[in-house]
Design goal:
Elements: E1 3-10, H1 22-26, E2 31-35, H2 43-56, E3 59-64, H3 81-101, E4 106-111, H4 113-121, H5 123-136, E5 142-145, H6 150-153, E6 159-164, H7 188-201, E7 203-205, E8 211-213, E9 218-220, H8 228-241, E10 245-246
Parallel strand pairs: 1-2, 1-9, 1-10, 2-3, 3-4, 5-6, 6-9
Antiparallel strand pairs: 7-8
Helix pairs in contact: 3-5, 4-5, 7-8
């Protein structure tokens, strides 16, 4: 039987600004990537999301990022490795402290946005992130793109591959840049079909029509796109109907 985790990025509001329906998504997903304040989120939002995740039995992950509130963490930045390690450590420790105060804990780490894409191809930045996780708690898995450079530099850490039901893929298995048209797939039927194929067959069809192997243990559904909650529900239902077991990886 195929086994997959469903994760989503949560807590991405800031102050009075809200993004996505965190509570509704927590009823669908098995793992929550909670923003730690550098690209989105603030202490109050972090606490609310952690409390709700604990109440629902959803696994909490630290969604770490470049320090880029204005750009939502989607602008690539050149950060010296020691500084990046310290900033990831800061975010991880902050969220874990809040999660523990609410009766839970951070169980894994996932980079966000530009940092996510950078560590997939840049071993220097990847090592800086891995060093932060290793320094804090080497038992925490790192969630990253299938085929990521993180695998080559994360000595002693568990690296978990993930796939994206609603993102377009290049023939090399990378995500199509959000600057390109069609980077995000919005058609419900297409997303659902892709999700089942990823979980059951371990492949995705790239923008060139090639089948790309993924071998992912976790699947991301975005919470900041139109109709995100209904789409996530459809993905979960289709996976269950296909006989896929839905279980967190951490």
């Amino acid at each position: 039987m195929a086994v997959i985790d469903i994760n989503a990025d949560l807590g991405e509001g800031f102050g009075i600004w809200e993004l996505g329906d965190d509570l509704a998504l927590l009823d669908v997903i098995t793992s929550a990537n909670v923003a730690c304040g550098f690209h989105a989120g603030d202490p109050l939002i972090m606490r609310r999301v952690c409390a709700a995740a604990v109440e629902r039995g959803v696994t909490i992950g630290a969604q770490v990022s470049y320090r880029d509130l204005a750009g939502f963490g989607r602008r690539e930045m050149d950060v010296a490795p020691p500084e990046l390690t310290a900033e990831v450590l800061y975010q991880l420790a902050a969220l874990d402290g809040i999660a523990r105060a609410e009766g839970g804990r951070v169980a894994y780490v996932k980079p966000h946005g530009a940092l996510y894409n950078r560590v997939a191809r840049d071993p220097v930045q990847a090592r800086a992130v891995a060093d932060a996780v290793r320094a804090y708690d080497p038992s925490l898995p790192l969630l990253t793109l299938a085929g990521s450079a993180v695998r080559d530099v994360a000595e002693g850490l568990t690296v978990v591959a993930e796939c994206f039901a609603d993102r377009a893929y290049t023939p090399s298995g990378r995500l199509v840049s959000r600057r390109e048209p069609g980077a995000v797939v919005h058609d419900r039927d297409t997303v659902v079909q892709r999700a089942v194929r990823m979980a059951v067959e371990g492949t995705v069809i790239s923008v060139d029509g090639d089948a790309v192997a993924l071998d992912a243990r976790s699947m991301c559904v975005h919470g900041d796109t139109p109709g995100a909650v209904d789409l996530a529900r459809s993905v979960r239902s289709a996976l269950s109907e296909a006989g896929v077991a839905l279980e967190p990886f951490a």
